[in-house]
Amino acid sequence: MEAKAISRHVRQSARKVRLVTDMIRGKDLEYAINTLHFSNKKASITVEKAVRSAVSNLMSLEGGSNIEPEDLYVKTVYADEGGITKRWRAGAMGRASVIRKRSCHLTVVVAEKEDKKRKK
Q1: Residues with Cβ within 8 Å of residue 26, at least 6 apart in sequence
Q2: For a Cys staple, 54 with which of 5, 39, 48, 118, CB 3.0–4.6 Å?
Q3: Nearest CA to 75 among 26, 34, 39, 114?
Q4: pLDDT tens digits, 60-93
Q5: How far apart are CA 114 and CA 120, in angstroms?
């Protein structure tokens, strides 16, 4: 059993968010949440919220109340490019230079461990 959470239009570049998502991909849920909670990256707050949302989505599914959080792991997590807001700023010699404010779309999939399924 698995569940997904999508956080769209996160006001941070996908490159910076990917640094955080690479730390938790494929890890146990408890390890992933602890890593995100104690990380000093700004993106870890957003990723942790998305992971907790995916767990909540899994628990709210039919039959999801039987699953223990210790039996879960982060199956996939990725950050795609979102929209870019363009702003203008005065540049040298009377020109205008563009400021690109990047965003990303964050997707987290949480699933039950396979070895726990077989033992039941």
Answers
A1: 73, 74, 75
A2: 5
A3: 26
A4: 988 778 888 899 999 999 999 999 999 999 999 9
A5: 11
Q: Is 120 a domain residue?
A: no
* Domain of residue 77, residue span: 2-114
Residue 109 lies in a domain: yes
Beta strands in 22-95 (DSSP E): 72-90
* Number of domains present in the structure of the chain: 1
Question: At 24, which CATH number?
Answer: 3.90.470.10
* 3-class DSSP assignment, residue 109: strand
Confidence bin at 52 (pLDDT 50/70/90): very high
Tokens of 80: 């795609």
